[in-house]
Amino acid sequence: MRKITALLLAMLGAHPAFGWGVEGHQLVVRIAEGLLSPAAKTDVRGALAPGEKLEDLASWADEVRRTHREMEPWHFVDVPLGSAAFDWQRDCAPDDCIVAKIPAFEKTWQDRTANAAARREALLFLAHFAGDLHQPLHCADNHDKGGNDVAVNFLGEATKLHTLWDSGLINHMPEEEALFAMLQQAITPQRVAEWSAGTPEQWCNESFHAAEATVYGLLPPHATGAPVELGESYARAAQPVIEVQIEKAGVRLAAILNRSVR
Ligand code: ADE
Ligand code: ZN
Ligand code: ZN
Q1: Looking at ligand 1, which atom is closest to the CA of residue 77?
Q2: How far is the CA of 141 from the centre of ligand 3 (A)?
Q3: CA of residue 184 relative to chain centroid, distance
């Protein structure tokens, strides 16, 4: 799958700063699907065309973003490093960031009088933004466009800090099926109960703290402008953070979809 994905991405051209890579978003949706109630499963299937699978549409929002530039800010929020937490006025005016878009699309998803095309789109945005919200750099900024301006050398390869967290580190982890099994078995009923609580604002603050503590907190000292040299020790510290963030994203997407049919 990863090879096919890489090939497709190569055909589509570079794919910078678009949330978790295709694999990360797919993992989030697959985890959520495993936690859906029968009613929610029926609800989701009914919103998709015959033969469509939600996991294959998990990155659709990143494709439409290329031609609809006004949708770009919907995928992240720049919470300044060093601030206490996400702030609506400072970070999300006028409701044009990911923390506002998740409840907005949830409202459309819950509205059974909304037209079918609008509900399908709301579902695809929710499936995607649940993932993006949990990529730490989609809820943090250090005057660097969420790490997009930070040049990195990861194991000899030139990249950006943001891209490393979208996909570079995941590609360095166990392959997709092994990773999926690992993540799934780590999700206990107790974690489902604990993680399903809260709001997108609180979930964003968790991402923000992960960005402070790990993404930026573990960068070695470096001269400004020079690429930051990162290797196995950074990847080892990042892996458990990425695992938990993807698990939480899947659990919370399931919670959103389950509560709409209660
Ligand atoms: N562009 C500006 N800030 C960003 C962020 N935090 N994530 C993704 N793209 C961005
Ligand atoms: Zn995105
Ligand atoms: Zn991204």
Answers
A1: 6
A2: 12
A3: 17
Tokens at residue 178, please?
Answer: 């092994």
Smallest-distance ligand from the CA of 65: 2
Pocket residues: Cβ below 6 A from ligand 1: 17, 76, 78, 137-138, 141, 145-146, 148
Sign of CA dihedral 26, 97, 241, 186: negative
In this structure, are strands 228-230 and 157-160 parallel, antiparallel, or unpaired?
Answer: unpaired
Closest atom, ligand 1, to C-alpha of 19: 8
With 0-12 / 13-18 / 19 or more C-beta atoms within 10 angstroms meaning exposed / middle / buried, residue 104 is middle
Cα 53 → chain centroid = 18
Q: What is the pLDDT along the chain (262 residues), one digit of tens a residue?
A: 444 444 444 444 344 446 888 999 999 999 999 999 999 999 999 999 999 999 999 999 999 999 999 999 999 999 999 999 999 999 998 999 999 999 999 999 999 999 999 999 999 999 999 999 999 999 999 999 999 999 999 999 999 999 999 999 999 999 999 999 999 999 999 999 999 999 999 999 999 999 999 999 999 988 887 999 999 999 999 999 999 999 999 999 999 999 999 7
Q: Mind listing the domains of the chain with CATH numbers?
A: 2-259 (1.10.575.10)
Nearest CA to ligand 1 atom 3: 145
Q: 38 CA distance to ligand 3 centroid (A)?
A: 32
The Å distance, Cα 76 to ligand 1 centre, comes to: 6
The contacts of residue 235 (CB under 8 Å, 6+ apart) are: 154, 155, 169, 172
Tally Cβ neighbours within 10 Å of residue 177: 9
